[in-house]
Write a structure and sequence with these properties.
- The protein has 2 helices and 8 strands.
- By secondary structure, the chain is of the alpha/beta class.
- The relative contact order is 0.20.
Amino acid sequence: MTLEWEQVIVHSVDPAALGQWWADALGWVVVHSSDDEFEIRPAPDRLPGLDFVRVEESKKTKSRLHLDFRPDDQAAEVARLEAHGAKRVDIGQGDQSWVVMADPEDNEFCVLGQRRQ
């Protein structure tokens, strides 16, 4: 049996707006857009992707699944994402080497520090 990771589903009140925000933040391309769904990928033929799917209710609690990103320069990437509309959030992480942030619909994600060699 073989499994291929296709995508991560992100529930969203406004899939097109949130999906476009992530496409811009990651430099990814839009591969599908409809009233209820907006899918992005690193390249049209590259997986996995992020698929934003419409739900009526907004996020109410801490996300049970989130994405981690490891940039070359954590401080510069956090500043770039803040300028793009992300915000730093406290989910009880305390003093850590990573920065917890949230997208415009309050979905948490982490910007990690440099990889240890």
